[in-house]
Design goal:
single chain, about 45% helix, Beta-grasp_dom_sf, Rossmann fold, metal-binding, alpha/beta, three-stranded mixed beta sheet, DNA polymerase, domain 1, ATP-binding, 15 helices, Ubiquitin-like (UB roll), about 350 residues, GTP-bd
Length: about 350
């Protein structure tokens, strides 16, 4: 799972990227090409399982991040940034919502809705241009030789064109499996899930900048929204101990760190759920597509487990926490054995029985 971080100049996207990944860029130079990084997914359930089992090894699931060059006319004209965006699974658009006279704004003033619309428009235009070129090629090819597959694709492209001209992203458009197969390799950007991160100032932490207008914009574009003060979270990240961090967060009224919020929204947007494997040797968090059957989840751990799957021994996280340990869970009959048809749920703790 790879999330691309985009935004206008001085929106705070580099600061947010550095907080999330721990990669501090010391040269201070502008980002001219995609910069990769990764971050652990923060999940309090994982922490509780580690405390319960005291394993020799612990491994969180990770999220891959990509800091992309700023959305300015030079980069947009070159088109490289769109190729980078096409390579990610979801987009995090960082929007400036903080006032600071020392930090210039490319348009001279802070206006979150204007900036949201500007970036959204550029992404829509990219997909429109691709669709228009594809329509031209298909119409030219069909005039020479009638081809059923090309005609189906042309019909789909014409529907997409009308949809985009209505200023609606393609993620709002219903596409069936056959149509999906026709366009799977195409670099559509507005089909990707998008998360809006409003970067607020320290004085605004107690207020909610996700206003009615922002909510309306997000709902109309099928985007998820969060707010974060990148500057404050950078200060928190510099503190030495978890105790100091927690005290500082409590003083400021921050209940959830940016990484925890962002990864949770990314998992929701991409339709992923977490499951765990536990023991005194290792506690590990895994990610799998929502609605996946147990053998598919087993395959995330190792292909042999999927190939030789017999059944899954399942514990429910909440029930394990309620009863205190595995022995107590077995005693009350809440250790479940499930077959190949079992659909893995978020928070499941799995022990895969298999034979190869």
């Amino acid at each position: 799972m790879k999330v691309g971080i985009i935004g206008l100049p001085q929106s705070g996207k580099m600061t947010l990227f550095e907080i999330l990944t721990g990669n501090q860029r010391k040269d201070g130079l502008p980002v001219t090409k995609a910069t990769p990084g990764s971050a652990d997914i923060l999940d309090t359930r994982f922490d509780a399982l580690v405390s319960m089992y005291g394993p020799k090894k612990e491994a969180r699931a990770r999220i891959d991040l990509m800091l992309l060059p700023k959305m300015e006319q030079e980069n947009i004209a070159k088109g490289d940034i769109f190729r980078d965006i096409a390579d990610v699974d979801a987009i995090c658009h960082v929007v400036r919502a903080f006032e600071d006279e020392a930090v210039y704004h490319v348009d001279g003033s802070v206006d979150a809705l204007r900036d949201i619309d500007m970036v959204t428009s550029e992404l829509l235009i990219h997909d429109q241009i691709f669709v228009e070129k594809r329509i031209e090629r298909l119409e030219k090819a069909i005039r020479k030789i009638k081809d059923e597959a090309q005609q189906k694709e042309l019909d789909l492209m014409l529907r997409m064109q009308a949809h985009l001209e209505g200023e609606k992203p393609l993620r709002l458009m219903e596409i069936d499996d056959d149509e999906e197969a026709l366009i799977r390799s195409y670099p559509f950007i507005t089909r990707k899930e998008m998360i809006l991160a409003l970067n607020i100032g320290e004085d605004d932490i107690d207020s909610n900048h996700i206003t009615g207008e922002v909510i309306q914009r997000c709902e109309s574009q099928s985007m998820k929204a969060m707010q974060v003060s990148a500057k404050v979270e950078a200060e928190i990240a510099m503190l030495d101990t978890e105790e100091e961090k927690n005290e500082f967060m409590e003083e400021l009224g921050i209940t959830e760190m940016a990484l925890e919020t962002l990864t949770r929204l990314c998992l929701e947007a991409l339709g992923l759920v977490s499951f765990f494997t536990v023991g005194t040797d290792e506690v590990r968090q895994w990610l799998v597509r929502r609605h996946s059957p147990a053998p598919v989840a087993a395959g995330v751990i190792h292909s042999d487990l999927q190939r030789g799957f017999i059944r899954a021994e399942v514990m429910k996280y909440d029930e394990l926490m309620e009863h205190g340990d595995e022995a107590a869970l077995k005693k009350v009959g809440k250790m479940y054995l499930n077959g190949k048809d079992y659909i893995v749920e978020d928070g499941d703790i799995l022990n895969i029985r298999f034979k190869v």
